[in-house]
Amino acid sequence: MSDSEAEAFVRGLLVSHGPLSTMEIERLARKEDKRCPDQTVIFLSKMRKKGLIKGEASMEKRGWIWWVP
Q1: Structural domains in the chain?
Q2: Contacts of 39 (CB under 8 A, 6+ apart)
Q3: Mean pLDDT across the stretch 7-34?
Q4: CB burial of residue 42 (10 Å; 0-12, 13-18, 19+)
Q5: N or C: which end of the chain has fewer CB atoms below 10 A?
């Protein structure tokens, strides 16, 4: 999957499922036989830096939570 395809896929997941943890995104992607071009957390961080998604550390979920602004 190309970067732009992966970005669209992740944004689609976040729009349809609401805020998700990194692990939840990985699990949903695996169900659809999709893989991020990089490690998931690195790819999501790059998307955050581009302003495509928002993210913050969650003590409750013990990891990062991601959502579409």
Answers
A1: 3-67 (1.10.10.10)
A2: none
A3: 94
A4: exposed
A5: C
